[in-house]
Design a protein that fits this description.
By secondary structure, the chain is α/β, with parallel strands linked by helices. It folds into two domains: about 70 residues, 434 Repressor (Amino-terminal Domain) (Orthogonal Bundle); about 200 residues, Endonuclease, Chain A, CATH 3.30.870. The protein contains eleven helices and six strands. Helix 4 packs antiparallel against helix 5 and helix 7 crosses helix 8. It is elongated.
Amino acid sequence: MVEPTVRTRRLGSELRRLREAAGLKTDDVVARTGMTQSKISRVESARLGIRPDALDTLLDLYGVTDAEKRAALHVFARDGRKRGWWQTYRDVISPAYADLISLEADATDMRAYESTLIPGLLQTAEYARATISAINVTSTDGEVDALVEVRLARQSVLTRPQPLALWAVIHEAALHPKVKNAPQMMKAQLQKLLDISRLPTVSIQVLPLDAPPHVGLSGSFTVVGFPEATDLDVVLLEHLTSALYVEEPEEVSRYGTAFEHLRAAALPFDESADLIEQLKDKIR
């Protein structure tokens, strides 16, 4: 059985939420649409896809009139089993990582808080190789090479015709050199942050070392956003051997609020850029 993607799970959970909000049980949907109870259950549990006409039937029944939301759900249904360039690397990337790359392709924005590392979409090849090698301790050199290629390929979302809007809050601790015998690696990485921050759709703030206790103490997270009216955002929490997607709207909203607090606690854009420049210039 093919593992359902986060798109398929999100579509299923949203259809279930819409049905319940409309005050309908699965028996009611069966009676009004002619669909089988098994099909409705399997779609809502992400074990089965759904055709466009059947999706429209459900959305009509549930009273969904918002055009953007309907369009977003159709994208999720169409691309639920989507396979892209990253499938070439399926032997070295996890299903959760493939989900992230797939979501980045459709997302309108990402809000990322990183406490110890530079966000993947902002990394240089050398920095990516050093961090991937350190984290993936059992990977071969060839696998590390492939993972670096994937990370760099992901960055194209920032320069595509309709670029992803990225807002990153990075703790200052992540900006200090970690490898004493390779200082130029970090110098080049800090320069890349300065260069890429000039893109109109990229915003970078630094959370200073002397910031008071903040919500980011609980760890890094990324909010992947879709068109504003869809309420289909998801949150990614990465761990050493796995990744967790938070998909319930109430929980996603809490992470959105947490990011706003971190953004407010971080240095303004100009001061963040000045600090990055100062740290870069100190590296010899």
